[in-house]
Design a protein that fits this description.
mainly alpha, 246 residues, Serine Threonine Protein Phosphatase 5, Tetratricopeptide repeat, 80% helix, membrane, 0% strand
Length: 246
């Protein structure tokens, strides 16, 4: 077992060493990685590899946003073509997501209901998308019931978007206490500013303007620390927060 563990440490160190060379990191990292395989790999992973992975994800998200601005109907057009060619579960789901993104939730609902059949009747990702479509089309009770069933069947399932859908559905159903509980978690766990902006608006609607203003002010301070492309992605939520902070 000791030999196996040592071998794994070395393999990880080699992986990071290759990454260091390809990404033009300082050669001293090679010394650290091979002199201290376990500790060196942990340090390199935290200091270099993880930040790069996060930056890469953000860059891809920004790139997708740019493509949507240049050709806002491209994904919907391509998803519809793929679905019309072959109505697989993947293509139904893709078209449903594209319709949701373009504000056509009512058209997305039957597609996603059709996708959530057979082998995919218990697929949490498909069910979460369907719940969001139901919420966006005005059926908050159905969205909440679906997500309650999903949580019971898959207690370890984690999705920030599904969590936000659930919190919104609970709020739309009039369960203020439960909605507050869910949004208090989302404020710090949801990527971007959407959850913060939605919660601040709810607080204002619930007759708590001071809490709404405090959250909006705090969120705008957070926004100022974000990279430019992240602020561009959240510009609509930033505008809403600015209105609530005044």
């Amino acid at each position: 077992m000791h030999i196996l563990g040592l071998g794994l440490h070395i393999l990880v160190a080699i992986y990071f060493a290759v990454h260091a060379i390809r990404s033009n990191q300082g050669l001293y990292w090679l010394f650290i990685l091979f002199m201290f395989p376990l500790l060196g790999s942990i340090v390199y992973g935290v200091a270099i590899w993880l930040p790069e992975m996060r930056q890469s994800y953000t860059a891809r998200r920004a790139g997708s946003a740019v493509r949507r601005v240049l050709d806002p109907n491209r994904e919907l057009r391509e998803a519809r073509e793929a679905h019309d060619h072959t109505a697989t579960v993947a293509n139904r789901t893709r078209l449903g997501q594209a319709l949701l993104a373009s504000g056509q939730a009512e058209e997305a609902v039957p597609l996603l209901r059709a996708a959530a059949q057979g082998l995919y009747a218990d697929d949490p990702d498909v069910l979460a998308q369907l719940a969001r479509a139901e919420l966006e089309s005005g059926d908050a009770a159905a969205a909440r019931d679906r997500l309650d069933a999903l949580i019971a069947a898959h207690p370890n399932y984690r999705s920030p978007t599904a969590h936000l859908t659930y919190a919104r559905a609970v709020a739309a159903c009039g369960d203020q206490a439960k909605a507050q509980e869910e949004f208090e978690v989302l404020v710090d766990s949801f990527p971007g500013l959407e959850a913060r902006a939605r919660y601040a608006r709810l607080l204002a609607d619930w007759g708590e303007p001071e809490r709404a203003q405090a959250l909006a002010t705090e969120s705008l301070a957070k926004a100022r620390t974000l990279p430019r492309h992240s602020r561009d992605l959240d510009r609509n939520w930033i505008k809403q927060l600015q209105g609530l902070a005044e």
